[in-house]
Amino acid sequence: MPTVIPSVSETVVRVNYSETDQMGVVYHARYLVWLDVARCDHLRHSGTSYRDLELAGLRLAVSEVSVRFRQPARYDDLVRIRCWVRDVASRRVEFGYAVEHANDGRLLATATTSLLALDENLALTRLPDHVRQALHPIADPIRLE
Fold first, then answer.
1. CB-neighbour burial class of residue 8 (10 A; exposed 0-12, middle 13-18, buried 19+)
2. Within 10 A of 25 (CB to CB), how many other CB atoms are there?
3. Cα separation of 45 and 136, whole Å?
4. Structural domain boundaries of the chain?
5. SS3 per-residue string spanning the chain
6. How many Cα neighbours within 13 Å face the side chain of 68?
7. CB contact at 8 A, 56 and 65
């Protein structure tokens, strides 16, 4: 039987000064932006892009987000965001994330997001078959709690 390689994408960002708070650590809301960037990169790696989905009349709207902060990221750190699909249903897709220090691998945060499929009028719709087939759910490569 052939070995299946898990579909985990990686995105690296550098913390810039404007992303830090008075304590010198990355402001918590900035992680949501990084999750979005990693999710869009993951879609590209899966053979589609958010732009392609929008041109086809599909919107993916975040309906839930959960972030567990473990250690702080600081100015000028390189941060790696690993992203994968946890679950795909007819109208929803759930992503998992591990936010790590890129140089030493320290786990900085874990997260999940659930997105709903909406049409151009922002009404709930079904994910097209080709999108569901492109997004391969895998077991979490790390513990998210």
1. middle
2. 19
3. 11
4. 9-134
5. CCCCCCCCEEEEEECCHHHECCCCEECCCHHHHHHHHHHHHHHHHCCCCHHHHHHCCCEEEEEEEEEEECCCCECCCEEEEEEEEEEECCCEEEEEEEEEECCCCCEEEEEEEEEEEECCCCCECCCCHHHHHHCCCCCCCCCCC
6. 11
7. no
With the CA atoms of 143, 66, 87 and 11 taken in that order, what torsion angle do they form, in degrees rounded to the nearest 10? -80
* Domain formed by 9-134, architecture: Roll (3.10)
Phi, psi of 14 (to 5 degrees): -110, 130
pTM (whole model) above 0.85: yes
**What is the Cα–Cα distance from 67 to 127, expressed in whole angstroms?**
25
For 97-143, how does the pLDDT look when each residue is reduced to its tens digit (9 = 90+)? Answer: 999 999 999 999 999 999 999 999 999 999 999 899 889 999 999 98
Distance CA 72, CA 44 (A): 28
Here the tokens at position 106 are 């320290």
Residue-level length of the chain: 145
pLDDT in tens, 5-48: 458 999 999 999 999 999 999 999 999 999 999 999 999 998 88
- Residues 6 or more apart whose CB falls under 8 angstroms from that of 6 comprise 84, 138, 139, 141
